[in-house]
Design a protein that fits this description.
- With 273 residues, the chain is mainly α.
- It has one domain (2-272).
- The chain is built from nine helices and two strands.
- A hairpin with a 3-residue loop joins β1 and β2.
Length: 273
């Protein structure tokens, strides 16, 4: 399992970085649509109990049309803060769901349209946020990925080293408060350092560190929310698309919550400038 996990991580990192740095935004958006709206959309149907193939295809087509509409809307300056602000506010609301963990727990395998809509909106918000960031500079997406990766690595090692109280034992028993603290410290350090090394990042080290605090908080919410939905369905992974990693949603749960927040911060700085 470890070997396949490491191999998958290396291959994914190489493919993602190549796509980010080599593809124009139009083609990068196509790749994002395949990953988030097609693969992620199929997994969201599974989480919501939508089992019929025709309905799943229809849902994926609907998400792709929504993605096209949002990309078009970003050409209207007034729409960008509305989209990013709504997505960020939506995540604040979704965080409340983690407090009421039995809400939405299905009885049997019945279809849950609320979860389908929620995960669909999450995917659309992540899709348009990353596309918007990439339009201004692919390095901004790289910077975001570095912060999320640093948080994951820091959480893994500090959690295993120190253990201690569980962060959300009924949702994700493996996560601890020490892991969350380690991930936060690692992401703050990474943000401060990479803000000076990565091109096109309009953040001072101090501002990057503060931004990292918000990104980690939102990323934890994203991780836990998808974990909660999986637990409701009795699933370990959202699918088996990525050997050793589970599904697409298992890989982008943290990123999907952090992306709109980071894009909103950079939009604010861009307007202020």
């Amino acid at each position: 399992m470890l070997k396949s996990r490491v191999l998958t991580s290396v291959v994914l990192a190489a493919l993602v970085l190549s796509a980010l740095l080599l593809l124009p935004t139009t083609w990068m958006s196509v790749v994002l649509a395949l990953l988030l709206l097609v693969a992620g959309g199929w997994e969201s149907a599974r989480l919501a109990g939508l089992v019929h193939s025709f309905a799943q295809v229809a849902w994926i087509v609907f998400l792709c049309c929504g993605g096209v509409a949002l990309i078009w809307a970003t050409h209207l300056p007034v729409a960008v803060p509305v989209i990013l602000g709504t997505a960020t506010a939506g995540w604040l609301l979704l965080a409340v769901w983690l407090r009421f963990q039995d809400f939405g727990r299905p009885s049997g395998a019945r279809f849950q349209p609320l979860k389908l809509v929620v995960v669909g909106l999450i995917l659309l918000a992540a899709f348009v946020s990353i596309s918007w960031l990439h339009f201004y500079s692919p390095w901004r997406v790289v910077f975001l990925l570095l912060i999320i990766a640093a948080a994951d690595i820091g959480a893994f090692f500090s959690g295993h080293r120190f253990g201690g109280p569980k962060l959300a034992p009924k949702i994700s028993p493996g996560k601890t408060w020490s892991g969350a603290a380690g991930g936060l410290v690692a992401s703050i350090l990474a943000a401060a350092i990479f803000s000076r090394l990565v091109p096109d990042i309009p953040l001072t080290p101090a501002a990057a560190a503060l931004t990292a605090v918000a990104l980690v908080a939102f990323s934890i919410c994203g991780d836990l929310l998808i974990s909660l939905f999986k637990r409701h369905r009795g699933l370990k992974d959202t699918s088996a698309l990525l050997p050793g990693h589970g599904g697409m949603l298992d890989r982008i749960d943290s990123l999907s919550a952090a992306a709109p927040v980071f894009a909103l911060v950079l939009w604010w700085l861009q307007i202020g400038a």
